[in-house]
Amino acid sequence: MSKDEEKKNDKDSAEQGSNKDESRKELDDILGQLKESESQEGDMDKSEKGMDEGKSGSPGPADSSEAKEEPEGIEGILESISEKAADEPVEALNPFQRIISVFTDPARLFRYVKVKPNILLPLTLVIIFTVITGYLVYDMAIDSRIDKIEQSDGIPDDRKDIMIDQMAAAKELPRKIISTVVVGPISILVIYSVITAIFLLIGNMFLGGQARFKQIFSAYTYASLIPAVLGTIVKVPVMLAKGSIEVDLSPAVLLPMLEKGTPLYKFISSFDIFTIWYLIVFAIGFAIIYGFSKLKGILSVSIAWLLYVLIFQVWLSTLFRGFLG
């Protein structure tokens, strides 16, 4: 190869290298311009979003995710309200404080029961005192029924003898234990469940509130400690001293002219001091659990109780008494 050809080849390779360098520079310039334009567009988008959010007050990404989680509709609103109520701080009460609060500060107790309803403690106490009371006055209750049968003019003599023999047989120890230890607690569970269902129907359906069965059952059982425990402590010694189960602590004791067994006497005697006390306490619990005013709770419970007294204590018992003569 001649020197001229070598020079020519060197010149061509140099030109190719310079061309490559120029093309690389041009490519780098283009990429740099693209990056700058993208960054400028991103800044503009952010500023526009910030201005739009400032004007409209719409939530940002974090807020929008929270907004999506918010419940929709009436059921969602009720659910969110109940969840907030469940998360409300409540004063912790130990079992002793709960029992004492029934008599001293029921509002404090039922604020606790609304969040942490408890059935076992009050129900156990009610059953224990009911069993003890039933066992102590069982024979007196049987004797009282026998006396009423003997004094009845509407029952034939032969039928009286059969009924009296059946009552006397009920005094036997096995039947006495079954009646007080087995039948008594079962009766309490059934009666309390029915009463709870009635007040749950009143509160949820007729008054438009929201409560659970366990809350109302717990409130009613705690309130029942007043007649079941305190009432027992006061009345049972008097019963044992008198030898009779008839211990009247109602306004009827101030009206001696009223004949026992009449509708008016039965109505007035229903206003026992312990009964009124426990109804007021339960009304407070009913109002707190449902979020009603205290007046609304007292009116609701009072009307329901008055209907019960008029139907079962007055009308049906008078009807049954007339049937027996």
Report what the structure shows:
The chain has helices at residues 3-56, 61-69, 73-87, 95-104, 106-115, 120-151, 157-169, 173-206, 213-223, 225-242, 263-269, 273-290, 294-324. By secondary structure, the protein is mostly helical. 81% of the residues lie in helices and 0% in strands. α11 (263-269) runs antiparallel to α13 and α12 packs across α13. The chain folds into 2 domains: 1-44; 95-324, no CATH class.
**Which spans have pLDDT < 50 for at least 5 consecutive residues?**
52-71, 74-87
- Helix and strand content put the structural class at mainly alpha
Number of strands: 0
* Count of helical regions: 13
Count of discrete domains? 2
Largest sheet: none
Content of β-strand:
under 5%
Q: Averaging pLDDT over every residue, what do you get?
A: 81
Q: Assembly type of the shown chains?
A: single chain
Shape: elongated
Annotate the secondary structure layout.
Elements: H1 3-56, H2 61-69, H3 73-87, H4 95-104, H5 106-115, H6 120-151, H7 157-169, H8 173-206, H9 213-223, H10 225-242, H11 263-269, H12 273-290, H13 294-324
Helix pairs in contact: 4-5, 5-12, 6-7, 6-8, 6-10, 8-9, 9-12, 10-12, 11-13, 12-13
